[in-house]
Amino acid sequence: MTCIDRRDVGLLLLRLGAGGVLAVHGAQKLFGWFGGGGIEGTGQFMESVGYRPGKASATAAGLAEAGGGTLLALGLATPAAGAAAAGAMVGAAAVHAPNGFFAQEGGYEYAASLGLTAAGLAVTGPGRLSFDAAFGHAVNRSWMIPAAFAATAAVTAVVVGARNKRMRTRVEGEQEALFEEEIWFEE
Known about the structure:
By secondary structure, the protein is mostly helical. Helices cover 75% and strands 0% of the residues.
């Protein structure tokens, strides 16, 4: 039998804290629990910030957060769980980035913190107080870390890239409309 040390307890606390927060945020999106908008309300929000289609985006974000968070908290499939949660947080950070870093100003600080914690756990591993350890690390192999991050990075780049392009097009259209309005008033 292996000895549990303070590293294992620390990893358990990180997993429970970050995983729990992510799971709750995902439940808000998927089920409307804890004051969330559910798929319908979150889908409308996702559309408003450039993620289309909104309901599909809400479902994907909700599953990445709720599923990734729950698996992180349990310490199960840690590489995939951490990568999925980190990818979802990159998507959230993209929405908040125009507001700067600090969360009090609507910035990406919170999403970045959760994403980096999830990524760190995926890389470090769950520790001995985990389901991965109990199951002999069957879904927590070293090769799974780069595979999970590569797949997540590819999907995240496509989704966030498409969103950013839509937002640039929207801003350019609004600027053009304002310019045309100014010309009309000058005539």
